[in-house]
Known about the structure:
Layout (H helix, E strand, L loop, with lengths): L3 E7 L4 E9 L5 E10 L1 H5 L6 H23 L8 E7 L3 H18 L3 E5 H13 L5 E6 L4 E8 L2 E7 L5 H11 L6 H10 L23 H14 L4 H32 L7 E4 L6 H13 L4 E2 L3 H4 L3 H12 L23 H8 L12
Parallel strand pairs: 1-4, 4-5, 6-9, 9-10
Antiparallel strand pairs: 1-2, 2-3, 6-7, 7-8
Helix pairs in contact: 2-3, 4-11, 5-6, 5-7, 5-8, 6-8, 7-8, 8-9
Bound molecules: 5'-O-[(R)-(carboxyoxy)(hydroxy)phosphoryl]adenosine (KG4) and zinc ion.
The site of 5'-O-[(R)-(carboxyoxy)(hydroxy)phosphoryl]adenosine has 20 residues, from α5 and α6.
Cofactor: Fe(2+)
Keywords: Acyltransferase, Cytoplasm, Iron, Metal-binding, Transferase, tRNA processing
GO cellular component, one term: cytoplasm
Amino acid sequence: MSDLLLLGIETTCDETAAAVVRRRGDGTGTILSNVVHSQTQDHAEYGGVVPEIAARAHVEILDHVIERALRAAGLGLPELSGIAAAAGPGLIGGVIVGLTTAKALALAAHKPLVAVNHLEAHALTARLTDKVPFPFLLLLVSGGHTQLVAVTGVGEYTKLGGTIDDAIGEAFDKTAKMLGLPYPGGPAVERAALKGDASRFALPRPLHGKPVPDFSLSGLKTAVRLEALKIAPLGEEDVNDLCASFQAAVVDILADRVRCALRVMRERGLKPHALVLAGGVGANQAVRRVLHKVAADGGTRLAVPPPELCTDNGAMIAWAGAERMARGLVDGLDVSPRARWPLGEIESAERGATERGATGPGATGPAD
Ligand code: KG4
Ligand code: ZN
């Protein structure tokens, strides 16, 4: 099969991103360009992402970001094999901006469109960076998502567990806000934790030992708040100790829940080639350290894309687009943006090929 060159567009949250990726016939890939415009500054004063501000910022900057990605790759639209965009899940205003732009480009340049699920893109990134074969266990931990997923093929995702309340990144962000640390909270909490005493506060580890690998973070967040109230006003050392105790609890929770998910996979007869860590929380060194050990203890290895590919980016969308296109999975221009789009509802290669009558890897042009 010949090489595929995909443009990928990401606008589901507060990153406006575009990238060009090449996928070779042997299944390996190369990132030709990867441009990310972060809106962090636009949202910082609100302590979180404001959907209307995000959508407007995507509209203003996306064309420019795409132009830069194409220029950096040294390619024009005619040379591309297809245009991929994140079609959800995410903040709907932003998703509409990205997907509509991709449709316009696909129509104007007569290229196939691939509507990519943002979570699927996180899941498949490790195949680009680490050539991880199927099956693998995905731990997706970001500001919006906390999921453990058995990945058995492109489009074949089985959610093993998720959070019943807050996402882990969200818990980092809320803890930071509560303790007067800047947004985004993850890096700030990690920095403070390095200087703190993790044994000072006994914080809960919700759902520890439960047989289904779900997460619950709100009780931990509340416990941090109660401890903070008890010793208020907080000095710098108090904040550092609270951050260290909070992070230690998160690390324990992750270790226990991932061990549980590895067990569940084994029970289902699946031997994971890797534990893949994705999402912004994957940048946390303490989290990485413990998961290395958990993976090794479970007879597998930890695969973590580099930080710039763990957080939201266009390369993961372009790569997922290429992985889908290589299997004949392309979309019509009538495909809808989706605020909610669980991994289990993604079309897989096998189902797609038979249901659409697509011709496999050779399929070109938007299917309808
Ligand atoms: O994947 P991401 O960039 O965006 C989405 O949420 O989709 O993840 C951002 C999240 C934020 O909640 C941020 O606080 C968290 O990842 N994060 C971290 C660290 N860096 C980012 N959490 C813990 N430790 C970090 N070093
Ligand atoms: Zn994400």
